Every structure is written in structure tokens, then in C-alpha cells.
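Data card: per-record layout.
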Amino acid sequence: MYSKEEARRLREQFWTSFGQYMSAVPSADGEKVNWVNYKTGVKHLFFKMDVSNKKAIILIEITTPDSSMRELIYAQFVELRSIFESTVAADWEWDERYYDDNGKEVSRISCTLDKVSVFNQSNWPELISFFKPRIIALDEFWSLAKYKFDIFK
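The structure for this 153-residue chain is written out next.
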């Protein structure tokens, strides 16, 4: 069992390593991008990656407190689903209504890798192999689709 400080340090070390590994990879538009803290440019719309002691997850999360706006943004993703699926080519779960750890209602599209731990450094290559192609694919999708979301800026 790790102390809070040790756990924080290991998480930070993983994300720093991942960021360094990805730093040479340009975005689909050929620009430099912060892969660990990906910016969509749309308020309340995030591309996130997270890893715990049990699983890794990459997701698109729509967090606006205005439920009708959240539904409109989610509907835009549904409209673009065939492009999304042909670009990301992985099995993603679509949740129009999802309650996060704090009980807040959000919409999200996610892909999970179970039975891995950020605290087990021997899992790090598997975690990087999970995150890298998916965040690159999300960026490629976003390069094609982001203009459809300009109305939400």
C-alpha cells in the first residue's frame, strides 16, 4: 500500500513519462500539442485520460451543467458517430447520462482497459500502448470534426 504522497508521485511520474514519450508526436494538424492536457477549445468538453490502481480510461466528457446544452453537444457526437468509429477504431462506450465520482451528471464516450495499475511500473508499457493510439485517433477525429462544435464555443 502506498502513502498519498507516494501514490501522487507515481501518478505524476507516469504522466510525465507519457508526456515526454508523446512530445515528439505532432497533432493531426501538424501542430505541437500537450497530449496529457488536451485542449478541445470548447468550454465543458474534455478529452481525458486517467489511470488508477485497477484500470485505465480515456474519454470524451461533456460537463456543462446546462442539461439541454449537454444533450446538444452529445447529439453532435452521435451525428458524427460513423466518422468517430472509423477514425478511432476501438470499442467505445457511449453514455448520454453518466454520474461521475461526485454524483454530477455528465455525458461521456469512453474506452477502458481493466486489470492494470499505475502503481505497477511493469504495467506502464501496456498503459502507454493503450493511451497513445487512442489519444492520437481522438486528435485525428477532432481535426475533422471540431468545426461542427464551433457553435458551442
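Known properties of this structure: Helices lie at 4-22, 67-79, 81-88, 124-145. Residues 124-145 form the longest helix (22 residues).

See the next section for split statistics.
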